[in-house]
Amino acid sequence: MRDELDAQRERLAKQLAQDRRKLLSDRFAAISVQLGDDSRSARLAAVYGLAGLADDWDQPDEAGQRQTCIDVLCAYLRMPVAPYPGDKACAEVLGPWRAEHEVRHAIVGLIRAHLLSGAHKSWQGCDFDFTRATFDGGSFKDAEFCKRVRFHGATFRPGNGAEVTFEEAAFRPGCEVEFWGATFAGTRSIVFRKAKFTGGSVMFRDAHFNEGAVVFDDAQFTGGKVDFSGAEFSGGEITFRHARFGGATVLFDNSTYSDATVGFWDTKFKKGQVSFDRAAFGPGSGKVDFGGSFFIGADVQLETAAYNGLSVNLAHVSGSRPPKLPPGPRRGLSRPSKFPSAAA
């Protein structure tokens, strides 16, 4: 009798599991259709429904179904979107743009919410593919990145003045956040203020920065790699004001600059590496500023950069391990008259 009851319970459990999976699969099919509706409210409902469905796929063997829901949300962001038409555009143009803008920002907001530490349903074990997507704002503030996020060929533009922010985000060991070939246009394009780089990699290889700003102010680099190798900077600046380097590798190798500034104001270099190997600066158009910075253990390399018009400011620096500079005089290179030791 007991064996028969156990068998009945097992059959019932299997049937319930099958019914549950069918119900979730049917929901996915319906939501996917709704996501293509012309109505803003219908698309918004589909976005939230898809996020809820991803949360409901919470069994150990259902990671693939959850990833599929996330893939659909990311695919929506990868679809072409019209640029901001301007405040003076007619209602027939501005209205649909704002509606689409709201849907896209809802997706970014939901992804961020699921990447926060302590999220009720965490998506930190999932991958996110934003290849060739367009971002005209959106916040990943406080998010924790543990796996792969791809922004290959993505475009970050100011839109209606919004910025894309990774402020206070954490990049953990094992993460791969890739901005390969991305384009940053407009002011204050992307913000990493107070971000923590404890491992993994954040790649800006071959990215294009056009009049934009990348802000790493007050960020902490204690591990991993941030790589700008091969990037092109045309106007704008990258700022590391009050940043702390304690073990990470930051590379600007083979990058090119035209009327651009890299600012390490009041920054502490204790460990790790910062390299401008074979970086090229156009005539009279580049500046690397270490004003007020402190050097004690990090390997900061500037000796092989192409100094055609590069201005390097080392005013008011201190520490025991100065950056590596080329021998002899260089136009625009302000060497400190002395390099005293200072307390950490």
From TrEMBL:
Region (Disordered): 318-344
Protein source organism: Streptomyces griseochromogenes
Superkingdom of this protein's organism: Bacteria
The protein's name: Pentapeptide repeat-containing protein
